[in-house]
Known about the structure:
The chain has three helices and seven strands; from the N terminus they run E-H-E-E-E-H-E-H-E-E. By secondary structure, it is an alpha+beta fold. It has a seven-stranded mixed beta sheet with strand order 1-2-3-4-5-7-6, with helices on both faces.
Amino acid sequence: MLKEITDILDLKDINNDLIDTNYIENEFINNSFFKVLVYLINNTVVGYTYYYDIYDRIEIEMIYVRKDYRKRNSASSMLEEIINKNKEITLEVDEKNLPAINLYKKFGFNKYAIRQNYYSNGNDALLLGINKEEWE
């Protein structure tokens, strides 16, 4: 089951050992565009998406699913929920994160730029988007 979290109090009655509540509380206080979508099984958070819904576009900050719940369509369900908002969507992903890249390709994301040596391990960040002009 998907649930939009709009306030820190929305986590009160949910079993949660994944989401950093201090982080999202700070984001909710300081950034009115910040949104959280959680994937629940038996009232327990098994996955989440942090994103910014900024007027006519969405920037996905993070999608995470517990390892023991991967490959069960949790990430796909969250991504589909965001895509259904019918806005331009952008995100960045480590060039070596092939499972994530394959998921984004499945939903029609295109690469439009690269941030070279972006991550501390020296990997590049691929900038992907839907409804954004393809880079190559």
